[in-house]
Amino acid sequence: MALTFVAASGGQGGSTSATTRSTTLPTGATTGDLVLFLPVIGSNGTWNTLAGWTLEGQSVNPSGTVHTAAIYSRVLQAGDTAPTFTCTVAGKSAWTGICWRPGTGDTPRVYAKATTLITAATTSVTPNPATSTEPDTISMVFNSNRAQVNGATGITQTPPTTPAVYTEPTNGDQSTAVDTTNALRQVGSHLAYRTGVGTGSIQPGAFVMNVSVIDIAFHYLLTGGKAPLPRAPYIVQQEAIRRAARWA
Amino acid sequence: MPQLPLSSGDILQEATGTANSGSSVQVSLPAGTQAGKTVIILVQTSTQDAATPSGFVMDQATSDFDGLFHFIRVFRRSNTSAAEGPWTISSASGSGPWTWWAMEVDRFDLASPKLTGSSAEISTNTVSPGFVSTASTGNMLRNDTLVLGMLGLRTDAANFAGFSFGAAKPDPYDPHTNLGSLATTNASGSVNLYGQRLRSFPYPDAQGIDFARDVNEPTEFGTSSRYYVGVVVVYASADSSVPDPLDFCTGFEFGTHGGLTAAPLAARRIVASTAGTWGTNFLIQSASARSGTYGLRIVQSAVAAYLRWDWTKLDNNNGAAAPGQLVAGFGVKIVSSTGIVVLAEINPTAGTIAQLVYNTTNTQLGIRWGSGGTVSYQSGTTATGTFVWVDWKVTGINSATWAQEWMLNGVDQEAPVNLTGQTASTFSSMNVGGNVAQTVTIDIDDLCLGSRAAAYPIGKTKVVLCTVDTGGTLTVTGSTANLNTFSANGTLAAWNATTARGAIDEVPPTISTSADGLVQITAATGTYVTIPMATYTLATGEIIHSVMAMFALWANSAQTASLELAGNNGQAFPTWLTTGTLFNPGSTAQPASATVPMWVHGKFAQGAAVAYWTQTSLNAVVLDVGKSNDATPDIGIHVCYLEIAVAEATSSRIYGPDEDGMTVDVTRSGGNYAVESYFVDCGPTRGATLRYVQDGTEVVKTIAANATLTENVSSNQFDAVSRVTIEPDPEVL
């Protein structure tokens, strides 16, 4: 059964230079929901692991003015509160989060990823494709970026409409902006999704930014389907099948 | 990291227009300009001339030809004020038609952005004349450029509308974008103009460029006359890489402060001036080395002490006007400190200084305006006892808006808010140490200074010392009878090349009663010795920023004498120090070099044909000493060295670790930060696919779980790799 969108959340800490990034859970998020966060910081550091949360991936784009981004995920447990993420190096930051609700008996998870560093300044960001193997797959694009011009104008994202429409939920478009100390290059955290993508290579279109940026585009595929079998039993099973075939 | 290359996003606004007639044309952009930008106007006209608008300069123009009036001219206005425009371009006599293309551009070099250009005029009445060409520019030698071009046609043919420019002339370096056409016909219908605009960025360095285009002429043109004109002009961004970017560098590898207390020369000094005492406040010692053998220690104990490098005494300014900016790069280590201490200052001729400070309590470096400005501290901390590389730039000193940028270990840091409303000044000097009573001990090494804004960031650099090639042979031009070697600080001996080589190879120089060296004893302007220099072999990813040559001079008594110092690196314009440049090491200002040598420290400039240093040109370096026109007293050198600023390769993590422990690291070459290689470590769980796009071509590599990949990219410039993707294998279902 497919995942169902619940809500998104987001914010920014443009006026502070800190190593921590507090968040809020998307409205309505509850036990059993799959929640993903994209914290972005305008420094060259490493996002620390956080107990209970899966650090799906993290990347640094050192081209131009540096920024560091990570994707965390967790299937919420009873009593969970909004996480605070920590990076090893302080900087201004922005973040977004999104909540997906699985159907009964589902095991929601991220099962495929493509992380692309856009190292040339551009206003058009096209993530690399990822391969969908699950019919209920949701394609999610998390764009982290840093403006390549100084200014107090925040970074805003316009999701693509071709070759398919990606939906940017409320709160899914965040950037540091006017309340920065120095109006130096802004940091953005954005997300958008597309449901019902089917199987095969999923190629998102171009996300358009209002200012020239460098970008880290996390293209993740989510499913609510059955859980993967552990790798070792799978291999053992294949070997057993081969042996059975040999004796047949 | 360097700022990113110019892109379409840096064209803030643009517009085109035509006018069928008139002695002037109004050029306008959709909105008024922003402050500090650049406006470029390309105009084609068939009137007698097109005067340069007020506040603009003309960067490129075609000539009138065949007695007809048909021009393309390129006008530029740098460092605009807010809300400028529109502009009127007038002809002193005559009337259009006109076609024009105007744009406002961000991130241009505001001082001298034009790198090169070319123009051509072609008169023909041949059907389908083939390619028309702007002619090729010279090599640009820099990346990150904006190339603009315009081709124009004037014809009296009646059926003008059927004309168009066609495909580009085949050219492997032709990434140009055709921007469409501009066409107009004047009122009488007797003159037609057709222009096509072209644009490209960035452009490979070390290439010429020719906007050659095919033409598609309608058959109605027949054999009627037509006149083609074309221009191409290449502009550099503010961050365009520059060859040979340093005006000064030293790694203190000469190993002594002997001679630095005096200031014998008006310029070409190692240190321009000091406030403090060598041997007490300033020590050149091995314990302070960041690279090589020696570094500089500055010790302040409730006193002010600093070393100063100023524009008028830097080695290679050659009388050039003081710039409006300074770019610095150096390694600094905090040994101990108390309170907030000043580590370095960049001083304008008049106005507010810029300071690099260290906050002992917070263990943070920061920069500020003035001694009381708000400090913009680094993100993170800098512990004592560890070198950190500082890149620092102050720009706009010659304008109303002054700006700072800085990086630590290659990472951008927040800078103070720009100073606005300033009185224009110029760069004057840079201090290392504090011009204030304070208690701090620091080590400084590998100090690099550049006067061009585009030299920023200099990037992690080590300054390497090379001596005479101890396996080479000194050769004499002229008579060896005019030369001697000396030992025991004045015992002369007949010339022997091997002895001479051994007398000038020590580091640091022997300055005592045991001093040795080579010397000219007879006036002979045709006699000099050529000294082969040892070289430095570049490691993978390293490049040479710039090279300095330095000499410790010696004279047999405290009198004035002349000596010429020169060099050659096998290039077209190799001379360092023009012929006839003389020095007076025995002058009363610097007597008795037995106790302190006179140091001469100058940039090994590559002459008019400024080019990047290469391993080949470094290997070819020789130094020349001699040509004294008096040799009274006997005059020569203790030692001669090269100081070579070598930009170091850097590595950084760009992906991971993720949930499976997968990581990707990138190694970039020094100076231009071009990608040298990627290193992928998949970790034990999943394999992955690495993709990157190099010069427009995607490269795909697969890596198995529990395996690593070293992918050598060896790109030649910063922006050659445009996107990098890591795709872990999907989970097994």
Kindly describe this structure.
The relative contact order of chain A is 0.24. Chain A is 7% helix and 50% strand. In chain A, the strands form three sheets. In chain A, strands 6, 8, 9, 10, 11 and 13 form a six-stranded antiparallel β-sheet that branches. Chain A contains one helix and 13 strands. Chain A starts with a strand and ends with a helix. In chain A, a hairpin with a 5-residue loop joins strand 3 and strand 4. Chain B has 733 residues and is mainly beta. Chain B is 2% helix and 44% strand. Chain B is built from two helices and 45 strands. In chain B, strands 15, 16, 17, 18, 19, 20, 21, 22, 23, 24, 25, 26 and 27 form a 13-stranded antiparallel β-sheet that branches. In chain B, strands 28, 30, 31, 32, 34, 36 and 38 form a seven-stranded antiparallel β-sheet that branches. Chain B has a five-stranded antiparallel β-sheet with strand order 1-7-3-5-4, with no helix packed on it. In chain B, a hairpin with a 6-residue loop joins strand 22 and strand 23 (376-377). The longest helix of chain B has 7 residues, at 497-503. The chains are: A mainly beta (248), B mainly beta (733). At the A-B interface, strand 3, strand 5, strand 6 and strand 13 of A face strand 39 and strand 45 of B. Strand 6 (109-125) of chain A pairs antiparallel with strand 45 of chain B.
